[in-house]
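Course assignment 3, question 2. Fill in each field.
Student: A.L.
Task: Predict the tertiary structure for the chain below.
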Amino acid sequence: MPSHLPEILSQLNADMRSDSDWGEVAAYIPELAGIAPDQFGIAVATADGQLYSAGDAETPFSVQSVTKVFTLAVALGRSGDQLWKRVGREPSGRAFNSIVQLEAEEGRPRNPFINAGAIVVTDELLAGRAPRETLGEIVQFVRTAAEDEDIHINQRVAESENAHGHRNYALAHFLASTGNLKNAPEKTLGTYFHHCAIEMTARQLAMAGRFLIDSPQLPRMIMPPRIRRLNALMLTCGHYDGSGDFAYRVGLPAKSGVGGGILAIVPGVASVAVWSPGLNRYGNSLKGTEAMALLARQMGWSIF
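Answer field:
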């Protein structure tokens, strides 16, 4: 790993703070609405065991949809490729919570990273099990990946999402009406809201993402073919209807969340986590996207 990476991260932190446009926080989730947008943290965990960070990399935040990467990994480990009968693998081209697209496609979500798709993945994980058991498995997978037991669900955020998640309830009930939900909507959504409310710091998230680097120097949590497929989905679908723009600007597989986090993978090299709670028009971190584009350019990181 280049010795100048710490200096690059420090300069990125300074550059992000020099511009007053921080975007808008996810105000539709009341527990996230009060978070100050002018925060920025970045961390890089490398395949050779190094960790570099800058800014607010030790500030816990709600990772939200970034957990969909981990839940999908767990679901594929449990159900294998039969999961794809219930959810597709194509970019959505629409907002992450689109009801129109779900109706047009008769209840089979376009991919596992939009809300409807992640609800189906959560429903698959619940098969024959209680929510507490399912959430325990998800949280333990994340803790094991990060080698950190101090990762928890923020109960206040989960309750806030449940109380105001009317559109997600609409998606779940539509899925149920088409036969693509095996559990009661309330049970599936309660589990979904709780795993989206997992809190991590940028440092913890970068560490947790290492299982997707595919390096012989790191512990193997899933097999290489599945690592490649998860990375492919992150590249094409990880930023919702902004996925093409992110791929164009950054050129790396990545998954965003409306809490302002982004987990990006440099295959064979590093896992990068960036956090800034202000969002752009796609619902992805404004400063996080800018920082990833600059970092990828300065480090020469791209899969293309």
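Instructor remarks: Strands lie at 41-46, 51-55, 61-62, 152-153, 198-200, 254-256, 261-266, 270-275. The CA atoms of residues 25 and 35 lie 7 Å apart.
Grade: pending
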